[in-house]
Amino acid sequence: MQQDSNQPTKMLTRTSTRKSKSDPVAPDSVLVDALGGFKLDMQRSYTAQVHDALQQAILRGKIPPRTALSEATIASIISVSRTPVREAMAQLAEEQLVMIYRQVGTIVAPVRLSLIEEGRFVRSTLECANHVHLVQTITPEQISEFGRLVEQQRNAVASGETDRFFELDERMHRRLFEFAGRDHVWPMLEPMKRQFDRVRWLLLGHVSGHAERALHEHEQMLSQMAARDVAGLGASVAMHINHISEHLAALRQQAPESYFAD
Description:
The protein is mainly alpha-helical. 62% of the residues lie in helices and 5% in strands.
């Protein structure tokens, strides 16, 4: 989804002074750090690979909001032509992860609070419904796997492995849908929760104790699932998802104001 070409060009102006809401982060070193380890698979679509690499770097905060994205720089880092980069940028614009200014350039989109609220609503609604049903049918083997995932998260928190914790968190939430026979719900949710995920990564990086708090909530959900506590589990899942609103206030005190919109 391209933006109006009449938007102000100052969006892409570098500055060494304090960044305002419309000033981007100086991009080159950020892009090198975020994409430098990328290895191109000659058997797969180049566009898909560039898209996936940029999408993950944006979601995980490795390329911060309002960073200017140079097609030439990205193509050089990844060792592809500019065509797959341009095509990947168009896809990311459709996903509202970048903003394209015709004849000016492209920046990483700020985190839109309205989209976070949509993601929170969808996740809260579907996960509460799924887990309340699952608690009545979950098997001992599934409880054991749930427990192993929580234990692995505990180890990741203890060793400060933020990336590992997030991956295990995602796996746990996906598996709880799969335990209930709803294998396709989590993939369906993924496009709707991208802005939500950006905030989760920013929280892990900026707000002290966020991973520990999430782990404690997972431990509580595991205990309630094992005890077949339908009412308690429903309340815990809702609280776990809805905490994003409370955490946003802390995040906005820590992260640059330019990261957010709406």
